[in-house]
Amino acid sequence: MLTLPNFLTLLRIIAIPVFLTLLARNNYAAAFVLLVGAGVTDVVDGSVARLTDSRSSLGAVMDPIADKLLLLSSFLMLGLAGLLPAWLVTLVVMRDVIVVLGYVSIFVVDQEWVEIDPSRLGKMSTFVQLFTVGFALVGEARPDLPLTWFIRCMIGLTALVSAASGVQYVYLGLLWHQRHGSVDDEN
Questions:
Q1: What pTM does this model have?
Q2: 28, 125, 148, 158: which is deepest, by most CB within 10 A?
């Protein structure tokens, strides 16, 4: 059965191609509105799931996938448009690639999935990344607003928090492997 929280998450995933089309057409104001809508549904679906005790394993997988798809595609599109620096796009994308490959590697070696719970730093990274995308969109939609300095600060904060959370996830993955790793490691 499709729960309301899962339906809201599905709507966020379906909205991503629309969001990317708006970005490709330089319609930054509409893209910003859609980004805010996606952020609101992200909060609502989590709150509804907790309040109605309708959390599901499907939702636990779909929700972070929706977040990552939206963020990574946003960073790539804004980087290609020259609105975010290439080094930041590379950092954000590679952080997620390294984290995912690390968890897949642990599964291959230990033949056991690591339970992935987002850390506070990881949640902060997502939050800061969303704000950076949002302010980059507002800066393009409303060039009359004096946001250049603020966007530069957000870019620096995003880099710092993204890198720190990436290091934290790698560290946590290595700790998990050390504690639960395969007995074949001793041979």
A1: 0.86
A2: 125
